[in-house]
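Here is one chain, start to finish.
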Amino acid sequence: MRFIVLIAVSGVCLAAVKWAFLPFIPWRRLPRHRVRYLRLRLHLRLHPGSGHASVAELWLRWGRPAMFRRSRRSRPSLTVAQRVLSPASDTSILMGRAHYGHALRLPLDEHAVVTSPPRSGKTGWLASVVMPYPGPVVSTTTKHDMFALTSGIRARRGPVHVFNPQAIGDVPSTFRWNPIDGCADPATAIRRADAFAYSVSQNGVEEATFWASKASDYLRAYFHAAALADLDLQAVARWVTGIDSTDAETILVSSGGQTGWQWASQLAELRGHANRTAQTVRMTMSRAMAFLADPALAASVTTAPRANFSIEEFLHHAGTLYLIAETRGEDSPVAPLFACLASEIHYIAALTGSRMPGGRLDAPLLFALDEVTQICPVPVPSWLADSGGKGIQIITIAHGEAQLRARWGNDGARIISDTSGAKIWLPGITDPDALETASLLCGTAAMREHGQDWTGRYEVMTPDMIRQLPATRALIIRGGHSPVIAKLRMAWNDPAYRRARAARQQTATLIPAPEPDWQPASPGTWPSEDQARATDPGFSGPYPWAQPSDPWDDSRSDDDPEAA
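Its structure:
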């Protein structure tokens, strides 16, 4: 009797071992209920099934040995001993854990695109990536939860900066940034004008690229003139609407040089006979400057002592910058401002990295771009093409492919997918096109359907299987490797965050930026020369275009009847 029981128990154990650890052999039958079968195996941390990466492939392609081989290129400043003995987070980022608890790591020179519906855990996962990142980090978000989860840990690595003009979550801004600073250099004016012009949504507009290009041509001239006259965006906002726009031409001409004359002649086109063209271009420029109508937002771009942001120091000290803004409609009011600042950081990081050993920034810079299409519409398709080789890693997060297509068109969305080394799909996706694309990329595997005597090729992951993945799981496809389903690591489960929270140090202590001595009430309202000198020590005054007939001339007495 005991012998029979022993045989039965042994048979059950062998059947369980076969079911648990041998699901990938070619003659394995196709499960009748594939979604239920997959979810059960994922909960047990077992191999998902045929067509998925094996344990050997996980070790060879996703494990720390693979990251060590890649780190020679991504971290040229580290010696061999340092790359072997240093924590794995210094040479890679941990995306999650696959079957049997195997770690899935991504090199620091590969980008990732994440497709995630709302409330699916993307913020918790992204925060777990940001916390141990070895270099500087730029994080964009519409809520303050990223700051609350990561700022305390990031403060141990470098300075923490916040740019939150709308005061979301009562998180104060630590600095103000004037895009006009530095635009006395024509190249800087061109870069920042491009960022402002191309960040304006042109949905439904014919020849949108043409209008954005023309707006950039005029904005660069306005930015350059404002910088030469020690002014800020308020002056540009006046000129854009056509008020005293000839003042910018006068400033450019009086500055001398070929650039001033050329840009002054470009501005003269706005006063030409093509009225409809000029009006359309002015509308594009005014949309980029629309946030200045809010006094609180306008104050965020004023220059003040001890309230400025040094990009070079931010990169050198592995700082963290949180760009926080809310959306109103399709875009955030400060989207052009955020796009300009992020573009400037990207440019300086690439330039700084080109002068380092290996020709790349070390430690790398991470752009964690959540809600990028709405609050920080930088040119992601063009960035992804060569940023990895410059020491800049980009993680793009979108709710779906339609969101990417709405901002950058079909070609731009395809470029983002093609140039991102890792593609991550979180559960809950309902877009049929996205599900079909993910299923197609997973490929097929040899399996035998129940009741059949032959083996056929079947989808490794059907759209239903992808849509119904368990919570905190994600489908990951990287390069030419087999697909992997990972359990994502959430920031609140990270031991470092738990220790910081127990010590009440999970959130960094900030020093708010000092308030300016004057608050701009609306576009076209200037400080007096005395106020400008008190706010900006570099102001030499007087305003070069101030004339007695100028309604914004503060040199008149309050008793002057014409001043009223």
